[in-house]
Design brief:
twelve-stranded antiparallel sheet; alpha+beta; 12 strands
Length: about 220
């Protein structure tokens, strides 16, 4: 199994550990239910609820305790509602990770590795989390996480997610943005964390075109 797919499955399926630094983030001092968060975020919630596709470039930094500098990567992503999320990495090397309800598919250097939900049920949980985060589906998020929210005076916001049940290496997730989801910080038990930044995301209520759907085949 390729490393990216293995990491996602580990986050969804491994044994939970004691709490750490992730829950020290300020947003977690402001718990709220789904209705209050929906009202606090206002227009962005309505826009993302109507979105059929979200796409754009991303950058990622992976901070590991044993390394002095983060591992960096970049590329582009495509979220298609009810279909999946495609992560295409362009640097430091080319690869693509496709997440759907049925499978995780890693493609690189002319090879392809598929992890099906029929053999690894955690695939469906990974997909469910991604789908709910990108669309800010608070009904789904509140089933999986205890929620917190921290609105900013400039229209920005932070959403804190604490797993309700065992969630593998995940300790907490912080989602931030303004008009859309602009960054995701994933805190792992033991101190490692991943930061993903989305720039100039394109949010569309139009149906996905043939080229977009082809990425999931």
């Amino acid at each position: 199994m390729k490393r990216a797919a293995a990491l996602l499955l580990a986050c969804a399926a491994a044994t939970a550990a004691p709490a750490g630094a992730g829950l020290d983030q300020p947003v977690f001092a402001h718990p709220a239910d789904a209705g209050a968060i929906r009202a606090a975020l206002g227009a962005v919630t309505r826009e993302l609820a109507a979105a059929r596709t979200i796409s754009g470039p991303y950058t990622q930094k992976k901070f590991l305790r044993e390394l002095p500098q983060p591992l960096r990567s970049q590329g582009d992503f495509l979220f298609v509602r009810d279909v999946g999320v495609a992560w295409r990495t362009t640097a430091p090397f080319a690869s693509e990770l496709i997440v759907t309800r049925d499978a995780l598919v890693q493609r690189d250097a002319g090879s392809s590795t598929r992890v099906g939900a029929e053999r690894q049920p955690a695939v469906r949980m990974v997909a469910r989390i991604f789908f709910a985060v990108f669309s800010l589906d608070f009904a789904q998020l509140s089933e999986l996480f205890t929620l917190s929210v921290l609105p900013g005076a400039d229209g920005s916001w932070q959403l804190g997610l604490t797993p309700r049940h065992e969630a593998g290496t995940i300790e907490a997730i912080v989602v931030g943005g303004a008009r859309s989801v602009e960054r995701v910080q994933l805190y792992e038990h033991g101190g490692d964390r991943t930061e993903i930044a989305f720039r100039d995301a394109r949010v569309s209520s139009a149906a996905p075109d043939a080229a977009q759907l082809a990425r999931f085949r």
